[in-house]
Structure formats: structure tokens, C-alpha cells
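Researcher: Next entry in the queue.
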Amino acid sequence: MVDLKYVLFCILPLISALTWLGMLLAMFVVWESQGSPHYVSMDPNQRIAYISDIGAQQLQPLFIAGACVTTVFLDLSFAAERWLRHSGRLARNISSNEKRLSALSILFAVFGTAGLILLSIFDNVSHPDLHNGFLLLFIAGYVISAIFICAEYQRLGRKYRQLRILRTSFWLKLVFIIVEILLVAVFIGTSFTSHKNIAAVLEWIIALIFTFYVLTFFVDLLPASRSQRKNFNKAMDQATNRVTCRRERRDRSSAMDRPMSQTTDASGAV
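Model: Structure for this entry, 270 residues:
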């Protein structure tokens, strides 16, 4: 049964992803429709414009607005996921480590938000050094955030084994981390070796892949709209029982090892 009140939470990442994708398509279409102009921020032999090259021109207001809407709604998706997990509409965190990982993922997402908004304001024509620094903050913030939330989901998936959606989200985010890190490494290498056209293409690809990362939060929030609290309470009881049994086995094993070590120490003393 679908609970319309919680469907609204699922819309948050959709707004973020569609805004980001729409902004990118609008910027590229406008650049193409103008005859692919060569901007002052581009190298002499550069034929393909960076997103920042287009965003530093007459489309800067669109760039700033798109960056703000995308990141604000993405951060709201992070906050919604945390609240829904705390309230029991999603699988609850059992350990304090999971809660810490969730908090760190939100913190670094905020860093990524600041990086994207600021790089859209401080363009690469008037403030190239600041722009590049904020670009690094944006990429690093969201990649590190993804690593923390991936670690949280990996732990949740081990405890809530019957909830396959946790494993699905974990693998989707892990693929994003691996692909983005590889592409960013090549992007940086080509940027500093004067292969600007290759670097520009990679930047557009990296930006498009970010859209799919945002959409993974729709997958995360969707169960809250069609689940009942008692189902997650039952799953939490099962997960808690598994954790308790694991701790009891570990305690029994430690208790058995302790007398043996004491006997060995006594024999050595004699």
C-alpha cells in the first residue's frame, strides 16, 4: 500500500537529478546552437567547451540556479533518508558506527554542495584559481560522501539480509565511486597535459554520471512510500537477534580461551 505522505520524499532526488540533467542539456544545446563558439577561457586548440566555459558566459545565471537547486534538493534527500531511517520507515541503524557513517556522508555532501555553488559563482574567467579549488571541493566532497554512505549500506545489508534493496543501492553507489574516481584521475591527467578536448569530454561524462548517482537516492527512499512500520520493526528484530547471537558466540569463544591461557601461564610458573 502506497502512503502518499511519504511519496513526497521520493520526489526530492528526482527534482535534483532532473534539474541537473536539464541544466547540462540546456547549456550544451545553447552552445551548439550558437555555432560552438570559442570562449576566452578556452585554450587556442580547444574545440570542445568545458561546462565551466559555457557557465562563465551569458548562461551563468542558469548555472548558478541549477547548481543551487540540484545540491539543495540532494542534501534534502540525504536528510530525508536519515530521518526516515530514524523514524522506522526505512531499515533502522542498529550500531552507533552506522549512525556516524551516515552523519559523515551528510557532512561531506554539504562540502560538495558548497563547492558546486561557489564554483558556479566564481567562474573560470575572473577567478580561475578559486574556481578550480571549488571544483576539487565539489568532486571530493560528493565522492567521499558516497564512500561513507556506501560503508553504511554495506553494514546495513549484512544485518538486514532480507532487504535486497540495500544491497542494490550499495552496489550502485560503489560502481559510481569506482567509475568517478577513474574518470576524475584521467580528467586531471588530460587537463594538465594540454589534452583539453579529451578533458572536456570527460568532464561532461562525469557530470552526466553524477545524475545517476543522485537517482540512487530515489531507490533508497522508495521503500518508505510503500512499507509499513511493523515490517521494518520485524526486520530490525531479526537483525538485532543476529547481532546478539554473533556477540554471544564471540563472548563464549573468549571465555573458553581465557581459562586455557590462564592454565598455560600457571604451568609456566611451576
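Model: The chain has eight helices and no strands.
Researcher: Noted, moving on.
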